[in-house]
Design goal:
This is CBM-cenC domain-containing protein. With 949 residues, the protein is an all-beta fold. The chain folds into four domains: 185 residues, Jelly Rolls (Sandwich); 228 residues, TolB, C-terminal domain (Neuraminidase, 6 Propeller); 237 residues, 7 Propeller (Methylamine Dehydrogenase, Chain H), CATH 2.130.10; 111 residues, no CATH class. Helices cover 0% and strands 49% of the residues. The protein has no helices and 85 strands. The strands form 19 sheets. Strands 71, 73, 75, 76, 78, 79, 81, 82 and 84 form a nine-stranded parallel sheet that branches. A six-stranded mixed sheet has the order 1-10-7-12-4-3, with no helix packed on it. It is globular, with a radius of gyration of 33 Å.
């Protein structure tokens, strides 16, 4: 039987439309045999209508095209005959759905014996609701003359939980033949030998992007926060006592901004990944009611009107959408401003919704929800160059708007339809509701606005006067506001309640001016690890969405992590001499830490410096001689990143904007005075790319010019990782393909494709490539891999991972969400030419070759002379061990009672997990001795190269 393999991908031509057949919500089908997920895969069981059991026609008209056949079979006694004699329509047969895992690859195989025609194997991928989200397909035309096996591979896309592998004939062709032994099996990749260690969650805590407020039927005041992370964690707490009332994990989301309380005390909570939940304060339940309504996958803000209808601001459609709980209906109010992918803020006032947008056009739009009319409210002229209208609030007859990056709060009179005031140095996200205050001795109607640097002003909505009040959020933004009667002495009537991003609730009473803060017991969560890097000493550093801001240092020996107060969202970092240079978002800030001195935020690292020049995320870094080369992503709504040459000693920098037109520099490497850069087509969020392929360029710092550029892999959008090998070849990685570039001839001389993942979403980090220990080690397509540079054979180490760093001991670090993992490759030593086991009495002299002591006991001295090697594994030596000019000296789990001296070895020196009763001395060895991360016990002085073991 002949065998042919094809790759079919999500990008493959599919003649079926996604709406061609209704999505199935079937339960997973029982597997027919080991590895094969399909039941009745050889069609031996036949139902009353002549079709194989467990299989059904794709359309009713398809039933006549399929029949059981007992004249020939490749497996068993029966096969399936297909006869499609129409070139105008296809026919199809579907199995019951089988369970799949997103990101995993599956092999779809069929034995075919065709007289003529074409078959088009197709796989429907379904989400948890049974909706079809992808359908890769590929045409096969087996030559007549006997049975042949056709095999195709597909990768389950994000969100897929079920699959239906279809037997389908093409619309434009005919088919006449037999089908048998259909298989759908998970592809198990070759994996490297080693051990994976879970190092826990180095960055964790509570950071809530927003907050919600309600009360239960008994009047208990309840605050709602979602600790952003991976996964995020929803908590309902008692505002007055801080007690945790309930909590629930939100797996798919990392942040939640939008909370809207309706008149019936329900709170609608919408996440940054498109889920919308409703919280019941009496039952203390959180229930999912929608997932990505109208395709909107990011909700920024939510607010309810008096009738209980809830309105949301969305991305990437730049829409206002609403939900009516009474009718259980969603409504799409459409794009607010053409060209804007963001509606960042909304404020609801009766039938009107005010929407603040960006990034192409920072403007306020008034939406009439009864007619759909949209009216632009232009910002004052001096603010029309802003990126966003980030915050909006209506209080009384005033609309408050905060454009960014400005820190001014603009005041608009709804009655005069004009901008009437500007309040400098305000902190978002909202101003409070207007309340009657008497604490100053004068009755006023005021709103509260937090100030940059701390403090709070009360703003009179009638006179526009301002005064300071006692409540102080410490310079933090107010996470929503509410008017509630709190059970606290000195707080009569209704009080204003808000929260900070640390789930700390603040209450201020407008009658007495009293204020109080309550830290809650909201559940923490691991924060998403955004980046990994290796420091000058070979320890690994992890950056993420820490709150309070910080960065974690991970000890290469123990794997223990320490969270250090300092930089916030770290986008990139690199070792440069004894310094670790760290780049953060937003604002493209740079920090320099001298690793020879203790960490002391503000002193070491000292005050940060900003790249400026419209840059926002420093994502690519390389030590480049006396400077650090930095590639950065521009601000929201902008294309064209920059290359910065930064001197950590002086803080000086030289910025080269848009070296490659409309593209961002996302990978860098340095050699022989030249900087090599890889670009991606995406700029800041909120703008579509204008180019289609990632570039490789060569930059000469001496001239400040790009001397060469090319598209190394046609069709790929991003050149994600770059590294030099020991011979000076430049290797690069895209999402799917490896390439080798000759810096002398300026040619791409080798390419190899491994994956076929969709690279059409904006990204800037999590893909890396390193030259390590004679091989390429990298991470892309959610896989950690090793590649042999001679054969280009790939070995998959782990799947479902992001980021990559390699410590001084050769261990690989990566993350799954907020959890950090370490892979310790299996130790490969020299091949044993002689093995000693059991008891060996007397002296042991090793003069040539490799001798292995495995579960041995040597009662006497051991010597290893020039060119010979020793490998001691779980063995004891009673007497001294001396190696002089040896090749490899490897002790793992050894116990030596006597002095150990290792001089002038030309290969590896390893002392790991061993006990030495006596002194330990190492000198002149070509490779520094290592303990492979397993500590030793030495009962005596340690000197020379082994002093650190």
């Amino acid at each position: 039987m002949r065998h042919r393999r094809t790759l079919i991908t999500l990008a493959s031509l599919a003649t079926l439309a996604l709406a061609a057949a209704p999505a199935a919500a079937a339960q997973p089908m029982a597997a027919d045999a080991a590895g094969n997920l399909l039941g009745n895969a050889s069609f031996e069981e036949v139902g009353p209508e002549g079709l194989p059991t467990g299989w059904s026609p794709l359309w009713a008209s398809s039933a006549a095209a399929f029949s059981s056949d007992d004249t020939d079979a490749s497996d068993g006694e029966r096969s399936l005959r297909v006869l499609d004699d129409s070139a105008e329509a296809g026919v199809g047969l579907r199995p019951e759905a089988v369970a799949v895992t997103a990101g995993e690859t599956y092999e779809f195989s069929l034995d075919l014996n065709f007289a003529s025609g074409t078959l088009q194997p197709t796989v429907y991928f379904l989400d948890a609701s049974g909706n079809r989200i992808a359908q890769p397909s590929s045409a096969v035309s087996p030559a007549p003359g006997g049975w042949v096996t056709e095999t195709v591979e597909v990768t389950a896309p994000e969100g897929a939980v079920l699959a239906e592998p279809l037997i389908y004939s093409s619309v434009g062709g005919t088919a006449d033949g037999l089908i048998d032994n259909v298989g759908f099996t998970a592809v198990v990749p070759d994996v490297a030998d080693g051990v994976e260690e879970d190092l826990g969650e180095p960055i964790g805590g509570v950071t809530n992007a927003g907050a919600g407020y309600t009360e239960n039927a008994e009047g208990r005041d309840i605050g709602l926060v979602v600790a952003g992370g991976s996964p995020s964690r929803f908590s309902a707490v008692d505002i007055v006592t801080g007690e945790l009332l309930m909590s629930q994990t939100i797996e798919a989301s990392t942040l939640t901004w939008a909370y809207a309380t309706t008149p019936d005390r329900s709170v609608y909570v919408a996440t940054s990944s498109g889920e919308v939940y409703v919280f019941d304060p009496d039952a203390l339940t959180l229930t999912l009611i929608a997932d990505k309504p109208f395709g909107e996958r990011y909700f920024w803000e939510g607010q309810s009107n008096d009738a209980g209808e809830v309105f949301f601001a969305t991305y990437p459609g730049g829409k206002v959408v609403s939900y009516d709980p009474a009718a259980d209906e969603w409504h799409d109010h459409g794009v607010v401003v053409e060209g804007n992918s963001y509606v960042r803020s909304i404020a609801v006032d009766g039938d009107y919704v005010y929407a603040g947008g960006g990034t192409a056009d920072a403007v306020v739009v008034r939406l009439d929800t009864t007619t759909g009319e949209k009216v632009r409210i232009e910002l004052p002229a001096e603010y029309r160059d802003q990126e966003f209208v980030y915050d909006l609030s209506v209080a009384g007859d005033l609309l408050f708007a905060r454009p960014t990056p400005s820190t001014d709060v603009l005041v608009y009179s709804l009655t005069e339809q004009a901008w009437v005031d500007t309040i400098p140095s305000g902190v978002g996200l909202e101003v409070s509701p207007a309340v009657r205050t008497v604490d100053s001795g004068t009755e006023r109607t005021e709103v509260l606005i937090p100030k940059i640097g701390g403090g709070m002003i009360a703003y009179d909505v009638d006179t526009y006067e301002r005064r300071d009040v006692s409540i102080d959020l410490g310079g933090a933004s107010a996470r929503g506001w509410s008017l509630q009667e709190v059970d606290l002495d000195g707080f009569p009537g209704e009080s204003l309640v808000t929260a900070t991003s640390k789930a700390v609730f603040h209450v201020w009473n407008p009658q007495t001016g009293e204020t109080r803060s309550m830290r809650s017991d909201a559940d923490p969560t691991p924060f998403l690890i955004r980046s990994l890097g290796t420091g000058p000493d070979g320890d690994v550093w992890a950056g993420g969405y820490a709150s309070p801001p910080g960065i974690a240092r991970v000890d290469a020996e123990s794997g223990a992590s320490e969270l250090l107060s300092g930089p916030g969202q770290v986008e990139g970092m690199v070792a440069h001499g004894d310094d670790l240079v760290i780049g953060t978002y937003p604002g493209s800030w740079l920090y320099t830490y001298d690793t020879t001195q203790p960490w002391d935020n503000g002193t070491n690292p000292p005050q940060r410096v900003s790249i400026g020049h419209g840059q926002d995320r420093p994502v690519a870094m390389a030590s480049a001689g006396d400077v650090v080369a930095i590639g950065s992503v521009p601000d929201y709504g902008q294309l064209g990143g920059a290359l910065t040459l930064f001197d950590p000693e002086t803080g000086d920098m030289e910025v080269f904007e848009e070296l490659v037109a409309d593209q961002t520099i996302i990978s860098l490497a340095y050699r022989d005075g030249l900087i090599y850069g890889g670009t991606g087509i995406w700029g800041g969020l909120g703008i579509d790319p204008s180019t289609t392929e990632g570039q490789l360029f060569v930059f000469d710092p001496a001239s400040g010019e790009v001397t060469f550029q090319t598209v190394p892999v046609p069709g790929e959008e991003n050149v994600s990782g770059l590294t030099f090998d020991a011979d000076g070849n430049l290797w690069g990685m895209t999402a799917n393909e490896l390439f080798r570039f000759d810096p002398q001839t300026l040619e791409v001389v080798e390419r190899q494709r491994y994956f076929d993942v969709d690279d059409s979403a904006a990204y800037w980090t999590t893909r890396e490539l390193f030259w390590h220990d004679g091989k390429l080690v990298g991470q892309t397509a959610s896989r950690l891999f090793e590649i042999d540079p001679e054969t280009l054979e790939m070995t998959v180490v782990q799947t479902g991972v992001q980021n990559l760093a390699i410590d001084r001991l050769g261990s690989y670090y990566y993350n799954r969400g907020g959890t950090l993992y370490r892979w310790i490759p299996a130790q490969v030593g020299p091949e044993c030419e002689q093995t000693v086991t059991g008891t060996h009495e007397g002296r042991l002299d090793i003069t040539s070759g490799t001798t292995c002591l495995t579960d041995a006991e040597v009662d006497g001295p051991v010597t290893v002379s020039g060119g010979a090697s020793i490998v001691v594994t779980d063995s004891a030596i009673t007497g001294p061990l001396r190696a002089d000019g040896a090749t490899d000296v490897i002790l793992r789990g050894a116990e030596v009672t006597g002095p150990v001296r290792i001089d002038g070895s030309t290969g590896e020196v390893v002392i790991a997990g061993s006990t030495i009763v006596g002194p330990l001395f190492c000198a002149g060895n070509a490779t520094p001795p290592t303990d492979e991360g397993q500590s030793n016990t030495v009962d005596g002085p340690t000197r020379g190269q082994c002093a650190h073991l």
